[in-house]
What does this fold into?
Amino acid sequence: MNRKLFQSIREYKKESILAPIFVILEVFMEVLIPLLMAKIIDVGIQQGNLPYIIKMGSFLVVLTMLALFLGVQAGNYAAIAAAGYAKNLRHDIFYKVQDFSFKNIDNFSTPSLVTRMTTDITNVQMAYMMSIRLLSRAPFMIILSMIMTLKINVDVALLFLVTVPILGGLLIFIAKKAHPHFIKVFDEYDILNNTVQENVNASRVVKAYVRENHEIDKFHKISSVVYKLFIKAEKIVAWNSPVMQFTMYLVILALVLISSEAIVFGTMEPGELTSIVIYALQILMSLMMVTFVFVMIMIAEASTDRITEVLSEVPEMQNAKDAIKEVKDGSIDFENVEFSYAGEGGNLSLKQINLHIKSGQTIGIIGGTGSSKSTLVQLIPRLYDVTKGCIKVGGVDVRNYELESLRDQVSMVLQKNVLFSGTIYENLRWGDENASDEEIQRVCKLAQADTFIQEFPDKYNTMIVQGGNNVSGGQKQRLCIARALLKKPKILILDDSTSAVDTKTDAFIRKAFREEIPDTTKIIIAQRISSIEDADQIIVLDDGKINGIGTSEELLKTNAIYREVYESQTKGGNEDE
It folds into this structure.
């Protein structure tokens, strides 16, 4: 695990240090226990010395209880340290993502970020807990057991000295062979999570088109890939136990052979043989622990790289040193603006955009699919940064504003409306967390949302389910408009945000804008001419370029694209009205 991740340990350093200390003390107790057992057998039992047996037996009980206490404490501290470490990692990733621009988020898929915050962090948590417990235990246990064995019989100690490196090398080799398969598994997990999320989010579409079987087959295929990769990895790791058992039996056979000869010739006592067997088991089990932890670390290493990737991502947008915190007014200027999602040298979505919008104006934007209408307005609150040129709000380049201050003054109702789990009151207070009930109800009346809210049994305390799936598309749009109005912004952007409401309601909303927020600059992207017909200026976009600017009357005379859309929508005498 790298240093960047270790920074997330923070307030759990004490537990991370105490856990291995208690483990080491526990090891000391466990190493002394076989020695006492040998003494009881060789001195107490063989000589029939009952007081000695009682005395050493009492020491043995005390040591055992101490070892138990120290082991429990070590486990508690290790669990607290690992859980706290995981909590901090989740916190750090979540907070990091909050600072990401849209471009940063585009680098990671949503399912991938979810996997990193769940499965990957769990892997790191488990590896960390095992490391501070078992990796501190195993080396001390092996070294101390070897020393105690060396004191009893040099030949047996030499047997361990030869066996331990060979066995350790074999087990590490097995773990390394399994490692690449574990790395592949997590990439496939991202695809699996993406399939599940896509299916759940689009469940209505799946059912409408009767595509359940297709989705089941798609899930089964990726699930099978994950299964096969795990099987490959586990088949390799499965060699650990047989190799360990085989080596253990060979060592014990060799140990008995050497020790029995020593007992016959009187250079070793039967009790010492017992303690050597226990030391042998302790050494071999410690090696097993090391390899088990090594496999966990190998798995966690892939997860560590994926977590580090998120934490190392540099937010594209940074506040300037002397960032401006106050937006003077809602005027907007585009000066030779060009933009590419791929950055410098990429295909341009916007080309040579020059605009001047006065504060308080109502601006309509119209254009065909792919004409970059949404891209244009997303540059105003710096959801993306321009590739060339500059955008000014209130006469100041948006890059010179503090991001929070700029976005506080630019309310945006995105094309895809999002509501969160909670009451209507809680959802609307995203616009202003301190807003009173009266203020919320006032903006809902402006957004033509109050009428349908009053029809709910719980009115403004009605619970919205995740994604707002218990309200209609038009209701969701009106709630999002109300939420945006609650911010009292200097600039209000509606990105095709009234497409699901009827033309009469749309007209009421625009009337409320004119009368209630005359000083707010209003930018309305629409597909319906009626939604922007009375705007102060209408911008016609085509292939990322401005094809025309003017009032509706002017564009009808001078712009072929606008005239074609207008005639196609008004033909037949405004049928939708």
